Fold this protein.
Amino acid sequence: MKRDLLKTASFAALHFGVAFTVTYALTGSVAVATSVGLIEPLANTIAFYFHERAWRRVDGNASSRNNARTMCCGIPEAG
């Protein structure tokens, strides 16, 4: 979970920089760029955190399926 939070924080910082720069380039307004640069990355960062957590579950489920015990020739053992 600590890695997820650190990754999310670095993503948020990067995303803020991109959102601010693009918005400022389009509008020329520091106020608008700051507003968009804070709101949009915040919403996206929260979504990204849960996206990462969901993929971690998917990855975990895939590895447990791949580690199923087999009896012979790739046929799963009953039980």
Notes: Residues 30-66 form the longest helix (37 residues). Residues 2-62 form one domain.
